[in-house]
Each structure stands twice: as C-alpha cells, then as structure tokens.
Amino acid sequence: MRAFLVMALLAPDVVVAQAMPAPIEVVDPMIGTGGEGHTFPGATAPFGMVQLSPDTDTGCELRACYGHAAGYRYEDPTIQGFSHTHFSGAGHSDLGDILVMPQSGDEVALDPGDPKRPGSGYRSRFDHAQEVARPGYYAVTLKDSGVRAELTAGTRVGVHRYTFPAGKAAHLLIDLRSSLYNYPGKTLWSGLHLRADGTLTGFRETRGWAPGRKLYFAMRFSAPLTGHALIDRDTAVPYKGFQGPGRGSDAVAEKLGRAIEARLDFGVLDGPLEVRVALSGVDEAGAIANLGAEPGGFDAIRAATTAAWTKALGTVEIDAPAAMRKTVYTALYHALLAPSVWSDADGRYRGPDDQVHAARGFTFRSTFSLWDTFRAEHPLLTLVQPEQTTTDVVRSLIESRRYSPDGILPVWQFAGRETWTMIGYHAAPVIADAYLKGFRDFDADAALDAMVASASYAPYGGLGEYMRRGYVPIDKEPEAASKTVEYAYDDWSIARMARAMGRTEIADRFDKRAGNWRNSFDVKSGWLRARLSTGAFRTPFDPTAINYGSDYTEGNAWQYSWFVPQDQAGLIRVLGGDAKAIAKLDAMFDFDMSTVDYSHAEDIAGLVGQYIHGNEPSHHVAYLYDYAGAPWRTQERLGQIVASQYKPTPDGLAGNDDLGQMSAWLVFTALGFYPVAPGSNQYVIGRPFVDRAALTLPNGKRFVVTAEGLSDANRYVTAVTLNGVALDRSYLTDAEIRAGGALRFTMGAVPNKSWATRRAARPFSISTAAKVE
C-alpha cells in the first residue's frame, strides 16, 4: 500500500510520511460472525479447500441452525472444537468436518456436554478478549482446559498448534460424529486408520444438504503418541452402503462405524503440539499426498498463506477513513473465500456423479452459490482474480455439467455435489460474463452447449412449462413469478454469448425468451405477478406477502417487480415512464414497515422499507434510478444502504454474506459502480465511498478512482471525468476499466440533477442497445 498520511513535526517545513496499515492488517474476520452474517473467523487461504475454524454449537435444532450456519456465532459462550470445513455466509447449514478438541489433565471427555454446565463435556468456555483473528490465522485460549489454540491453513492443509498447561498431560479428541446441523443419522459411515508411522487417516460419508458427500483426511503430529483409543459410540446395525477403505498393510488399528471417535494421548509435553491435517474428496491416499504437497510446520504454512493473502488483497488499494477501510477490505477478504478448491494437488476430484475425475490444466473448484453470486461476486473476480479464478471457475462449471447425472450446469454445488437449492440456471450468466469480457481459455462451444442444455432441461423448476407457455404457471410450480423473470435474464445472457460466437440460431431463440418477463408482468397493477396455467393472474394478491414456496423466492412483489436486469428501460416504459418508475422506487424505500411482519422469514433482513439488502433480489435496485434519469437518487439510496447495512463489528453484515455476494456488493459500491446486468459489459455508476482506490490489473495497468471532496456532507456526485475527459453518462464499460486510467468524481453537498440524465447517457437495456460490446 502506497498511501500515506502526512504529519507535521516541530519545524513547519519538516514532514514525515506514515504508512497506512497494510490491507492484511486491517481485515477483521470477526465481521459478520454475529447477527445474521454467518461468516466464520477461522484460518483459510484464498479459495482454500480447508476452512479451519472454531465451532461454538453443532447440536442446534433446524431453525436454530440457521444462525449457526458457519459453525461459529459471536454471541455463544463456548467452543465445542475446531473443524476443517465451513461456508462463509451461507443461508444453509452443513460441513463442520473432522472436529478436533484438545484436552489436558487425567480425564478425557468423549461428549461435548451442555454449554450451560461447564465441565460437563469437552466443550470449553472462552473470552473474546483472548481471541485473535487474521487472514490465515486464528487463536484462542480455552478457559476450562487452559490450552492455547492456534490455527492456520494452506490450500489443502490445516495446521493446529496447541500449547498445553505445564505439567499436564496432553490429549486430542477427534470426533467424526460432529457436523453443523448435526441431526440424527447425518453421518452414514465413517472410519479411522492409525498407521504404523503415526499418521491417522479417515473418512466420512454424510447425508446432509448435499447427499452422499464423501470427505477423507490425513493427520500427522509433531510428537509421538503415548496411547490411543479408536471408539465406536454406536451400537446400531452397520451401514451396508459405502464401506470405505479396509485396513491397509501399514494400519495398526482401524475402526469403522457411524459414530467414531479417537482419543489420542501425548503425555506431558515440553513444547506446543502441532497437528497437520490435509483433506481430499478422493481418498485417503489423496489426503496423504496433499500433506506432502504443502510441506512445513505451523509457521511455514502461516507465512505462505500470509503472502498469498497479501498478494490477493493487494490487487485493490484503498484510501479511506479507518472504519470504512476496514469494512471494505474485510468485504474483499470475504469475497476471496469461494468458489473453493476441490481437486487434489494431483488434479483428481470427486464429481457430481460421485466418481473420481482428473482436472487437466486447471484447478477444479466447487462451492457455487450461484443464485447469489452471479450478481456481483463473479463479476468482481473477473477484475481482482481474473487469470486463474475465472478460468478455473468456468472450466469447473463445464466439467460439472459433463459429469452431471442430469446433464446440466450446477445450481448450488459444494464438494462436487448438487443440492438443487434456489432457482435459475445462473451458471449461464457467469460463463457469458466471462466470455464477453474476453476470457477465452476454455471450450466456448462446450460452454454454450452446457448453457443451452441447462435452459432446456424440462424437469427442472417448471422449465418445460416455461418453454411451452413463455412463463411458469403457479398452479404447476411454486415461486413461479420469480422463476419466470430469472429464467428470462439467464436466457438473455445465453443469447449474448451465442451472438458473440456467431451462433445465430441460438441467439435468436434465446433473445426471444429474454422477453418472457413481460408475460408475468401485470401492466394494469404495475406488479410482477404469478399466473395460472389458464393465463389469469393468481388472486388474491398482496405485494407485501412473503412466504416460502409462494409466488416469489425469498421475497415478494416489491423486490421482484424490478428484476429485469437485461431491459430496465423496457420495464420503465411498462410502468408508465421515468416519473412513475422513480415514484415506485421511492415508495419501495420509504415503505412503512410497521404495517407488516416478516419474523417468520429468516432470510429477510437488512430492510430499508421494502428494499431488503440482506437478500439478493434487491441488490441492484438502488442503481435503477440511473435508468430513469435520476442518478442523484441512486446516490442518496446508496448512502442509506451503506450506512445502515455495513459496519466494522461482529454484527456488521445485515444479512448472510452468501459466499461473498453481500461483500462483493460493498466492494463495487465503495468504488463507485456496480454490475447491474452481468453480461452487458457495463457497470452502472453510483457514488464512491472511499477517497481513492486503485485496481491493479493483470496486464500491469491500473485503474484509479478518486473522490474529490468526499465527506458525509458531500455525498452527491457533481461531475465525473474519465482520463481527464468529462463523462456525462451513468455507466462505465468493462473495456474502459481494463484499459487502465483514471476515474475522478467531484463530490458536493447539493445533487447535480442534470448529470447523466439524457436517454443516451443511461446504462444498457435490450430496448436501447442490443449490440455486444
């Protein structure tokens, strides 16, 4: 970071430059661990397979597990142990694999116990004052055992370091029963193998969010075992499905079952105990090989990961007041956690068909929360991680379709397994956006074929009805209104890529489908509504109603009536023109929420009127004033959202981060622009929230954003220049950013109501600009 604060010394003509803290020093992984952020504070590398983090409660009931989806919740008083896999900001609970808990003294507890009764099990109280969380590092003191726990992680390896109280025996408990949302019967089968060289290997097959998920591990210790016990806590009839590997020739002990634990004894140690753990989705041999691929102890792995984070975060330089700088850099950090690596160091991975395949020339990635992340997370990665990430992501999506039993692209995938969660075929805009931005290091024909196959798979989400009627009928398929408009947007992205490739027949077919949003829009009432198979709109109708499985997906008519990213100009005409569209947007943000109750809908958080920032369908809405010729209104609304939805505290995210989408929204918005319609190659201009930012692009060029006069009072854009030339339009092109240059905002206390208001100055819509740029 080359930004400096200048401080005057005693002599008026003598100054000294004091460097701002480096990005890695200001990131706070605790942001989002409280409230509804659902982030975890533990150690991980950029996009790492291992997310080594504390779990504070894994025994929650279904509804309570929503708040514990990442394993850790800031408000909890105890830590149950440290497991190796976690989602960052998911709206669903799973993972929490291979729980490790250190214990000291003569007794070793085998069950976690009651968090309200200290000493009733192996869980321990802790104090936030003794926690440290940094990118790639986490530490805490376990009050009940006196053990100081430190965690770090590489790409496929996690390393624990435990310092035990002097004179007390050291033990580890490995609990394969434990999972996040650990309902009875989730662990289908598991096993442990203690090998002659002291390596402990094992596996789990679980029946959770992703069915039949398999995970393997290998664990080595810096001190020899003085004793051990492999324990089966289950007396039920053994599972007769996947049995896992049998005892190898070098195994000295083995235990298979549904409820397996290991007690490992090390005696009294004269120094810290280090535990190296590698994961694999393939087999135990793959886990052992992954251990060898990342050599070194705790300090070496931590140093390598610190260097990786320093490089990844350094692609964006930010000058801003301390609180904003911390918030934005932490958002960037959260945006670089997924899609996570899933292939082993040798390229092998377990695919959607539960078979082992090999990635050649790229790293296979999984953890695709595509309904959330197509909006801003993936577009952000094309700028800040463009070379490897975009290529890896697109190739992984194509490979997933190749081995999918259904022959379509991922919907919500992790650990190579499909969950069928959420709606749409949003891998399509992710691929199209990358292709249209010039990323071509993948088989474009195979990609387009996969996109078309996904958009033509009749059994999925009412697609057969959609293709037949031009809309999804609510009496045939739930959430029909949302599905109609999301399918239409995905169709437009397919058409864009097909036309750029010269595949005219496909482009024409999907361009027509891109207009299907009109088929569910009730022009008389001005709302997107669900239609019956008869063609009539369903009644009764309440635009404020939010219910799961109803007309809309995690939202209502207020949010979804604005979901036409590909043709906002067409939507504004349907609404009756600019003034009526602006009035409807204002009514959304200014809605009196005392008249409704959404306490039954756990995903509905971060409300500004009927704008719901804690859930994704609203994320583009504040930028829509630009399309109606009122950019200053976008600037006002963005100020409301940033001030109320983000802060540098554990409860600093208003809603769950959804694998980086909430965070990517803030990174873009802080820079002053946002990708309302990925695939358009445009970013809609809002207003900056940092004094200066610089993107370092892979071609060595830099794109610098400056906000002259920015302050709480000066919150409006009064003028914009691009490379010194006045910019009188409310969008930037992707090519302009990648070419490098300087975007300068002049900020003022009074809005400039003449800037970028002309129709020609407005962002892309099908109705006004159909050309692929």
UniProtKB/TrEMBL annotation:
Residues 1-19 form the signal peptide. Keywords: Hydrolase, Signal. The keyword Lipid biosynthesis does not apply. SUPFAM superfamilies: Six-hairpin glycosidases. Residues 27-280 form the Glycosyl hydrolase family 92 N-terminal domain. Residues 287-748 form the Glycosyl hydrolase family domain. GO terms for molecular function: hydrolase activity. InterPro entries: 6-hairpin_glycosidase_sf, GH-type_carb-bd, GH92_a_mannosidase_put, GH92_N, Glyco_hydro_92, PNGase. Pfam families: Glyco_hydro_92, Glyco_hydro_92N. The keyword Hydrolase applies. This is GH92 family glycosyl hydrolase. It comes from Sphingomonas arantia.
